[in-house]
Structures are given as structure tokens and as C-alpha cells.
Queue: 3 jobs
Job 1
Amino acid sequence: MTETLIGNFPFVAAVVLMGIALYILIFRRNLIKIVMGITILSSSVNLFLVTLGYRAGGIAPIYTDAPEGPMVLPVVQALTLTNIVIAVATSALILSLVIRIYRHTGSLDSKISRRMKG
């Protein structure tokens, strides 16, 4: 039982991070904490993708004369790099919106910002 848990620790860590992020997104009202929850959720997805591409004893698929044995999956690594770039851009956009909301309302409470609908 413990060997299975230790072997699947990255998956468990990704699920725990996802649970923490969803808790923050659902139950917190501070806009900065919501942005942190989105960032944690993105990090948990990255951890999950890297864990999917891992192979025990695998080698990087960059060799022309690769030795015998399993290779790690390069597609999930490329997806993770893409996700990191998208997450940074999204976080910057959301933080700039939070700054504008704070300047307009004087508060970081999400219920107050909902009154800005117009």
C-alpha cells in the first residue's frame, strides 16, 4: 500500500494542489487570493503533465544515436512549456485587472467588484 502511494506521489501532490486551488477559488473573496488560486491550479496541471510524461529510467529524446531503453515523452514537456507561458500571460492580465478594480473601487473584495457591472 505504501509503495503504491510513494510511486504515485506526484499524482497525489497534483490532486492536493488542485483541491487547494479549487477551495481558494470557491470560498475566498479577496481578488489577490483568487489570482493565487488560479496560479496554483495552473501549477497543479503542470505537475500532472510532467508526471504523465515521466518514465522510470527514461532518457531524453534528443539523441541521434539513442541507447536502448525507454524515452520520456516530449509532447507533454512541450505542453507544459506552453502552459507555463500561457499561465504567466494570464496571471499578468488578471493582476492588471485587479489593480484597475482596486483603483476604481478601493477594495479587493470580489462582491464589491461585482457591482461594477454597469
Note: Residues 74-105 form the longest helix (32 residues).
Job 2
Amino acid sequence: MGTVRRHAFIERSADVVWELVGDPARLHEWFPITSTRVEGKKRWINLPSGLSFEEDIVTLDHDLRRFQYSIVNNPIVKSHLGTVDVIPDGPDRCIVIYSTDLDPEVMALMIAGAAGAGLARLQEIFGSGEPGKGEGR
């Protein structure tokens, strides 16, 4: 199982950042994908390459500011859990943490690259901070 984690500090309140990050239908606004569609507890994302992924929404907790999803019905992905947390770091600053556990392990590296780009995009949107590479193995 491949495990990666990326993070970025954002100079905005956790509530403000969560309005964007915590909306599963708005992923394409900050993550490097072309579109998203949400129906109930399902989400489909489309990549610039034309590939689509079906996902189950596992957790959408507005109190904890945690979103978790799992790629499903994919012949390559054996197991997956993605987690995005938005954690306050003072009244006008937060940290966004994006982590993924994925089998096959090599695919975790691809998601890690996309997560890094997504976090950098969030910093552009909110105009703050330096992305952290976090931890990966």
C-alpha cells in the first residue's frame, strides 16, 4: 500500500477554506482535473487525459472539516482512501492536509503529484503561504 501526505498553510480561516475544499462538487476548481459530478454519495472526476474515476464519498464532516473518498469500480485500483483535512492554525490561518493510501503503490505517487499541485492552487486562490511536501513513502 502506498501512503503519501502533502500539506499547505493558507492565510485564511479554516471555515473560509472549507467552503471550497469541503464541497465535493468543486474539486475541479482547485485540483488538477477538468470536471466533477456528484450524485448523492457518489462522485465522478474527469482528468485532462479523458480518463474518468468513480468515487464513493466516505466522509463529509463539516464539524471536523474532513472529506474522505474512495476510488471504486476501477480495474487497476485495488484499495484506496483519500483524506482532506482543513485544520485551524489561529483565527486567520489553517493547514490543509491531503493524504492518500492506495494499492497499487505506484499510483499513490501520481496522486501525490496532483495533490501538491492542488494545494499550490489553493494557495494561489487564497493568496498565501508556501506548500509543504509533507511525508511520503
Note: The helical segments are 14-21, 105-126.
Job 3
Amino acid sequence: MSNSLFGVHGAALQVRSARMNVLSSNIANAATPGYKARDIDFAAALEARLGGASGGRAADAATRFRVPLMASLDGNTVEMATEQAAFAENAVAYSATLGFLKGRVETLTRAIRGE
């Protein structure tokens, strides 16, 4: 029922949330030797989610290791500038998706009230 009410935005919000968790984990482990930075391919995860995969399975299937621009001596592949830019971009997209959902809920609320 939520797919028909909210369209692609409900699935997109789940994928963006999972990506936010992955990116924040990368930032938190920036000083951990041997840590491999990961990211979620949003398009692939959304396609899997819309294809019927659960939120976690869709994100896991679309998770990729990030290839660093400059290798670290300790094997850590987190590059803070890259992670911060990806986090900020995802946060803006997450906020936009919430805005679409809020608009849809407000429209439904007005329809129920008969306005």
C-alpha cells in the first residue's frame, strides 16, 4: 500500500538512510588502519528495492568498496574530503525526499478532510 501512496519516494528514503549510515561509518573509521571505505550505488539499490528486495538486502547488494585517489600507508581507503562531499550530497537528497513525502502526506490529509 505504501508504494501506491508514496511512489518511489518511500523506497528512496530507505536507500538514502542506508547510504547515510555507510558514509558516517566511513567517516568514523577514518583513522582505523586497514579500514576499507564503502559506498552504496544509489541507482542499483533503488532498483533492487523497487524490485521487491528488503531495504537491507537492496543496500547490501549495491554496496561497493571505494577506490581511493591516493593510497594510504596503513591500508585505510577513507578520504575525508570525498566522504564529506558524499555525505553532504546525500543529506541534501535525503532532505528533498522528505520534502516530497511531506507534500504527499499533506495532500492526503487535505483530501481526507475534504478541503
Note: The mean pLDDT is 90.
